[in-house]
Amino acid sequence: MLKLKDVTYRYPxxxxxxxxxxxxxxxxxxxxxxxGPSGSGKSTLLSIIAGMDKPSSGEIYLxxxxxxxxxxDKYRRESVSMIFQAFHLFPVxxxxxxxCFPMELIGMRKADAKKRASELLYSVGIDDSMFKRYPSNxxxxxxxxxxxxxxxxxxxxxLLADEPTGNLDNENMQNIxxxxxxxxxxxxxxxxxxTHDMDAAESADLIYKMRDGELTEKTQQSEEAV
Length: 226
Fold this sequence. Notes:
This protein is α/β, with parallel strands linked by helices. It contains 7 helices and 10 strands. The chain has helices at about 40-50, 70-80, 95-105, 110-125, 140-155, 170-185, 200; strands spanning about 1-10, 20-25, 30-35, 55-60, 65, 80-85, 160, 190-195, 205-210, 215-220. The longest helix has 18 residues, at about 170-185.
């Protein structure tokens, strides 16, 4: 469980609050979407949750522990993983090498990393015929699947996705949202996406709407809707 309580954020030297007394709850086993127009503060919110920025005031709780009392480097390394609109795969590494990278970075043996990477890639619909390909030889939907597998490789239970379907057509958008929903429901991840695409957001269990740095509305989706 991740809880934000009265979180406010102002950029250093800024003259206005980008986030204003934001309070909300994100639970494991659920896919939550944060929507809103450009400039509403949703990407800043994701950055705060990811530990890349610290609130100007207010508090974030990971379970019962205050995030301000946790080693931020350890939190970013072990507890949270990011998925980006532009995929951010390493262009000079193969699919397999991209997914192995975070595991080898923490000292996992190469053979063990490759075995785990294979499992993760298969789980998102990437088979071994693609393992030796480079990102430039993959479609957008395939690149995003690899990016999701790589995010899972870190072992983090909190998956954050910044416009994960922004570069995809409707069919691939739905496929990626299906994967993210399955990771939440079947694998127990806490998955949070920020998006301006309401079609993508409709796949979520819970939708928060942001405007001018404030959470203005919360929508609980029925099981039939998702």
